[in-house]
Amino acid sequence: MDFLNRHVWLKRALMLLAILIATPFAGYLLLFVEVAGLEVAFACLLIALKPFLTWAQFQIDIIKATFKTISNNFHKHLASRPTVYFSHAAGSAAFFAITGVMFVSVAVWLPLFMVGAQYA
After folding, report:
1. What are the transmembrane regions (predicted)?
2. Which residues neighbour 44 within 8 Å (Cβ) at sequence distance 6 or greater?
3. CA–CA separation, 78 vs 13, rounded Å?
4. Which residues touch 80 (CB under 8 Å, ≥6 apart)?
5. Residues near 40 by beta carbon (within 8 Å), at least 6 away in sequence
6. pLDDT of residue 100
7. 40 near 48, Cβ under 8 Å?
8. Which residues neighbour 48 within 8 Å (Cβ) at sequence distance 6 or greater?
């Protein structure tokens, strides 16, 4: 923060940039810049942003709690144990190999291509 205190022009440029970005959403900031000055307009911008930042922090906390609950439930679930997981994965792989698209294409179309290759 000492850097911004030494370079006041940079601090004012950053405040002006923030106000210009927020102007489409809060046009009254330009009136504050005209009447009261850049610093007052920036303070009003920060005051206007406080409810949004509080709401955003609350939503982030809800999302974190949801992911923590999902993680806890997943680790407690029976399917997360290694023996159960590997048996299900092996069974799923075998089921896909037997009934999957590759099996159908090899079982049906490959013999036709092999027979058709003799007569081509």
Report:
1. 12-34, 84-110
2. 28, 29, 32
3. 58
4. 74
5. 32
6. 72
7. no
8. 26
Please give the structure tokens belonging to residue 14.
Answer: 């950053």
Instruction: Specify whether the CB–CB gap between 32 and 41 falls below 8 A.
Output: yes
**Of 116, 113, 95, 94, whose CA–CA distance to 105 is shortest?**
113
Domain residue spans in the chain?
A: 81-120
Two structure tokens written together for 15: 């405040």
Cα 55 to Cα 31, 68, 79, 96, distances in angstroms: 27, 20, 36, 46
